[in-house]
Amino acid sequence: MDSQFRKARVRLFVTYDDGLLYLDLVRAINQGAREIMGELATIQTTGLVELWLRTIDAMLISTYRSYTIALAVIAPLMILLIGSVRLGLLSLIPNLAPIIMGMAVMAGMGIHFDMFTMMIGTITIGIAVDDTIHFMHGFRRRYRAIGDATMAVRDTLLTTGRALLVTSLVLCAGFAVQMFGDMQSTRNVGMITAVTIMAALLADIVLSPALVTLATRRGYRI
């Protein structure tokens, strides 16, 4: 308390844990303090825990906005670059699959979503979009030349697919090196990013061919 008895500070020490777990605690403290003090005083929570909560809240909001904006921008660009509305929309599925796979691995291994791991999604989207554009563009070119979806997929995988395999392996090896670092956050980023890159490759050589083949069998013009 200050010498004028105008301000008082109450310090509460808590254990280090996931920042989201403190959300209910801070709310309970604010509500209880206001019920006790009423209009006699203004209550303000500060400290590291409050900073964590504000940071996490801003991080989640910014991540949601970033992914939403990215999808809104990527969709028309994919349609424009590939030259087909249906292929452009179908290409969004293998682009989102690696991110979902990465989050599933994080949840299964108990890895928290923090300021380090939140970058994995943006990295994966950039790599997945690049690979998908190459595959879809190659497939469309071969399909229009020979008119057979199965053969077009085969030719695309034998040409463009080889390049996708090599580049994905190189990127996986580069990020996997981080797994030998001393910081846990660095190891998590390296491991999850490598997993999502491989998931992006599998989506482009397994999921994308299945989608385009199914689309052509149903008579959609590509």
Protein described:
- This protein has 222 residues and is an all-alpha fold.
- The chain folds into two domains: 1-46, no CATH class; 62-217, Multidrug efflux transporter AcrB transmembrane domain (Multidrug efflux transporter AcrB transmembrane fold).
- The chain is 74% helix and 0% strand.
- It has helices at residues 23-37, 48-82, 85-90, 92-109, 118-146, 149-176, 184-217.
- Helix 4 (92-109) packs antiparallel against helix 7 (184-217) and helix 6 (149-176) packs antiparallel against helix 7 (184-217).
- The protein is elongated and about 85 Å long.
Distance between the termini: 74 Å
Order of helices and strands: HHHHHHH
Number of strands: 0
Largest sheet: none
CATH class of the largest domain: Mainly Alpha
Number of domains: 2
Summed up, the helix count is 7
Helix content: over 70%
Rg result: 25 Å
Strand content of the residues, in percent?
under 5%
> In CATH terms, what is the fold-level topology of the largest domain?
Multidrug efflux transporter AcrB transmembrane fold
The CATH fourth-level homologous superfamily of the largest domain? Multidrug efflux transporter AcrB transmembrane domain
What is the arithmetic mean of pLDDT? 82
Concise account of the structure shown:
With 222 residues, this protein is mostly helical.
